[in-house]
Amino acid sequence: MLSELSEHKTDAQIQEAVRSELQWTPDLDHSAIGVSVRDGVVELSGSVATMSERYIAVKVTQRVTGVTTVVDEITVQGEPDAADTDEKIGQQVSTMLKWYETLPGVAIRAEVHDAVVTLTGTAEWAYQRKAAQRSMQMLPKVRGVVNQIVLTPRQFPADTADRILDALHRQASLAGTAITVHAESGKVILRGTVSTLVQKHDAEQTAWKHPGVMELHNDIHVED
């Protein structure tokens, strides 16, 4: 028997697909996660035990066909002894930041309150800023991360738009897509149409890797 993938899915089909994908993910307790869908926009609600699980739930949902946007309303369960939790998280954060101290142009500081980590300081690259946030999200007991790291100004080459477009064309996941790039004075705007939310995310991540990008607007449309 030959089965074919349908191009268009109803909200009910998307909801069922997201639930199935969450259940399929072994490192995620999906039992307390709610899923609702309207016009391809998925809202995740409920609670999970860690920030890492919250991150995984969003990423898993983004890769489901038919999903155009993910609204994350998941809460992370708190710990009974907040002071003790903050102290333990602070020790882990301090250890993690020692690695970033070895990177040139990176000066990151952190504060912990009620299991929420606030990152401040500077970094030269957007991927460094995102990596710092991601590493904190993966720590046990962390309920949230506030990323206030500022990107330091870098030279913005005149051919930035062309170089980003070339990088997009090299991505296998973006083959056949029609994306345009506008770049000026550190600001980049992505426009066009893609088939999935994952492709939109991949395009954004690729553009952020270019040196000198200080601000990025992802106006790419995901087909219904």
From TrEMBL:
Taxonomic path: Bacteria, Bacillati, Actinomycetota, Actinomycetes, Micrococcales
Pfam families found in the cross-reference section: BON
The protein's name in its UniProt record: Osmotically-inducible protein OsmY, contains BON domain
Residue intervals passing through the bilayer: none
Native organism: Herbiconiux ginsengi
Boundaries of every BON domain copy: 10-78, 85-153, 156-224
InterPro entries: BON_dom (IPR007055), Lipoprotein_DolP (IPR051686), Transpt-assoc_nodulatn_dom_bac (IPR014004)
